[in-house]
Amino acid sequence: MAINRLDDGEKEALYVSLVPLRLRQLAGLAADGLHNAAGERLTRIIAPSGLAFLRIEVRARPDDADTVFFLELADTQYLQMELSFCIICDPAAPRYDVDVDENGRRNWFASRGRNLPEELRAMQDGLFPNQTRHGLRLFVEFFPLLERFTDALGMEMIVAEPLSYDNAIRYERYGFDYLRGKRLMMEIDREFLPGGRYHTRLDGSTPFRMPGQERTVRGRSWAIHDGVLDEPWDEVQIYKMIGVHAGIDTFPVREQETR
Question: What CA–CA distance (Å, rounded) separates 45 from 14?
Answer without folding.
Answer: 11
